[in-house]
Amino acid sequence: MRFSTILSAAIAAGPIVASAAGQMGFALGNKKSDGTCKESSDYKADFAALSKETGTKVVRIYAASDCDVAKLILPAAKEAGFQVILGIWPDTDESFKADKGAVVQYAPKYKDQVYAITVGSESMYRGNFTGPELLSKIQDVKSAVGKGFKVGTADSWNKYADGTADAVIQSGSVDILLCNAFSYWQGQVLNNATGSFYDDIFQAFGHIQEKAGGTDKIELWVGETGWPTDGDKYQNAQPGLKEAATFYSQAVCGMVDWGFNVFFFEAFDEEWKPHAVGEDGSVADETSWGAMTADRKAKYTLKC
User: Fold this and answer.
1) Is 296's pLDDT higher than 80?
2) What average pLDDT does this structure show over 251-268?
3) What is the spatial distance between Cα 88 and Cα 76, in angstroms, rounded to a whole number?
4) Is 122 a known active-site residue?
5) pLDDT tens per residue across span 22-43
6) How far apart, in Å, are the Cα atoms of 259 and each of 117, 123, 253, 255?
7) Does the active-site annotation cover 224?
8) Which of 35, 99, 144, 244 has its CA 20 to 30 A from that of 301?
9) Out of 224, 266, 270, 286, which one is annotated catalytic?
10) From the candidates 122, 266, 270, 286, which is the catalytic residue?
11) What is the pairing mode between strands 114-121 and 83-88?
12) Taking the C-alpha atoms of 269, 177, 93 and 29 in order, what is their torsion angle to the nearest 10 degrees?
């Protein structure tokens, strides 16, 4: 679907509302290129590169206890003037307990640096939780961390649009929801990628706002989107530097310029990562999704 069609449909449909300018953030890994855990100095270098090349001041991480990330990243964020969305991985009892413990221990000490807390990352998409089951985990965390923190979850756009997350949306317990949408993983050709991305996000945001009872009930972000600069073709989606730069400037910056908040996946290449498997069973490289290389060099213009 063409972008102009999406734009016209979104305006006509309502009730999606955005501010004059959205925020741009980046997903940030907790490992070095060789797969070992990052140290405090690595996060400081990450923040310096992100600030210089993108102007952003917010990142998200996925598992607060893994590699001691909450313990290490929050002091570095304070020094650099960044905020962090801390992630809790609820899919196993062990990871949920460890991540919740790390958040409870460190978030109150760095309250100004914690933008929000997400419980789960595509947990409903993978089928690990129903909406009510995930809601129970979110409410557990919300109770444990106490007042003053925004708590929510991140999941694939279609799990919001198809009603899977309705129990979460309508609970009154979530403050923030992140919606992931990848035109690349839908096998889109580049000239349809922006339109497909917008269509997915507007379906998700529109459904959330309808079920929440208003446009100002829950803070909404694009939780992940991106395009790889190298690797394997996925259906009709071709990786490449030109393709990634085009998607970034048109789809990502377009969404931010239109007033929506977006987390780009991801800040830096992660060379240690294994190959990913798409919905159709195809294997694809997931090491080249960074807006910057592993040594923190921008691959293309990153300021919208």
Assistant:
1) yes
2) 97
3) 20
4) yes
5) 999 999 999 999 999 999 999 9
6) 22, 27, 10, 7
7) yes
8) 35
9) 224
10) 122
11) parallel
12) 10
